[in-house]
Amino acid sequence: DAGVIQSPRHEVTEMGQEVTLRCKPISGHDYLFWYRQTMMRGLELLIYFNNNVPIDDSGMPEDRFSAKMPNASFSTLKIQPSEPRDSAVYFCASSSGGGTLKPQHFGDGTRLSIL
Amino acid sequence: GDSVTQMEGPVTLSEEAFLTINCTYTATGYPSLFWYVQYPGEGLQLLLKATKADDKGSNKGFEATYRKETTSFHLEKGSVQVSDSAVYFCALSDRGATNKLIFGTGTLLAVQP
Known about the structure:
By secondary structure, chain A is mainly β. In chain A, 0% of the residues lie in helices and 54% in strands. In chain B, strands 2, 5, 6, 10, 11 and 12 form a six-stranded mixed β-sheet that branches.
């Protein structure tokens, strides 16, 4: 079975540019999560969706960040404008059903570098 | 709020040594507890879980027991291999309607041949 697919795997761009990260969850999963991982702050939950609807975006750092899930098989995380402090590895994860008994399946991440 | 505290790494062991990675938690209610593992260049994978007090989760030779009295969920393995080298994350989630996980900071394990 295909796992969670993220693209691109690596992104290097200049400060001020728009960055779009993409995620395809596992087919049939109805929860989707976006995380950010840095050395300083560890793994942080940014936002999660249930049935394509954003449920909790309290972890989104500021208005420069936005996330959408137009359908059950695709989500984007956008940063506009990007700043050097946004450099991190961004993970997408999905799970089936509610509750914590359903494990979250992670993609391999997007390593983002803002120069 | 809820939180997870893990021992700081890196932990460096020789092959076949015994492994313990400490994890304690603070939570209201009765959380479920998890260990995730992250191999280099990859995303996190669920290693094991426990959903109530005294439950023991196990997988691939790793074990962890949910200790409510000490609010702990320490990860153990009797004999580590070089292939176990990775970052290990302890996590908790409440039993509410949300599906949120709260992760510890991760512990890097390096196993030398």
